[in-house]
Amino acid sequence: MDVHLAVDLKESVISMNDLDATIISSNFWPPIQDENINLPASVDHLLTDYAQRFNEIKTPRKLQWKKNLGTVKLELQFEDRELQFTVAPVHAVIIMQFQHQKSWSSRSLAAAVGVPVDILSRRINFWVNKGILSESRTADSTDHVYVLVESMIDTSKNVSNNGNNEDLMVGEDEGEGSVASVEDQIRKEMTVYEKFILGMLTNFGSMALDRIHNTLKMFCVADPSYDKSIQQLQSFLSGLVSEEKLELRDGMYLLKK
């Protein structure tokens, strides 16, 4: 699912026009792992209404939402700035918890979001790194406190304000052997997505590189989540072409016949 939200971290109102659903079939896709998350009531009601209308039009078909999949386009409005992000649903659920409460302990926030504390700690780092939340430790070293940063006082702080940072950084002083080992490791990590790629091409026939990349980002959010750059994906697809599993025609990838 794709959801578009304008959030002033006080109240958000969404409508059916903000939701764009992608229907996937078990006939073409490998099993997709579910991650349970507690969606905000407004979003949950929207999904319920959407599914009911779909059932009325497509009876007897019914929608079964994969609530942890898809993307959410957020516009966050603060006292001194307005920022836009495209994030996974779990990231959106985390930041929306700060609409009515500006400070959370990691344990309380994990319970509100509906995920284990260790998963929350990994996911919330996105907002900490973007300067949207600040993190501090409590007397109990196993529990952290996260506070919403409502204004940017320290303007010298180098913070990236977009949700698309996909560059693979390699040290200039690393030798060719090190670079090769990194590339080999990336290829091994990419093999977990091969079934998804083959399933997509079985379903859609042919797809361009950027569409494959965006679809993987949308649906592969459970551990291991898809966090590769488009250049890394292109390298992996080239390997599948070399193995004669795929063909590349006019910039479109398709299954080898």
From TrEMBL:
One of its GO terms (molecular function) is ubiquitin protein ligase binding. PROSITE patterns: CULLIN_2. GO terms for biological process: cell division; ubiquitin-dependent protein catabolic process. GO terms for cellular component: nucleus. Keywords: Cell cycle, Cell division, Mitosis, Ubl conjugation pathway. Residues 1-128 form the Cullin family profile domain. InterPro entries: ANAPC2, ANAPC2_C, Cullin-like_AB, Cullin_homology, Cullin_homology_sf, WH-like_DNA-bd_sf, WH_DNA-bd_sf. Belongs to the cullin family. This is Anaphase-promoting complex subunit 2. The lineage of its organism: Eukaryota, Viridiplantae, Streptophyta, Embryophyta, Tracheophyta.
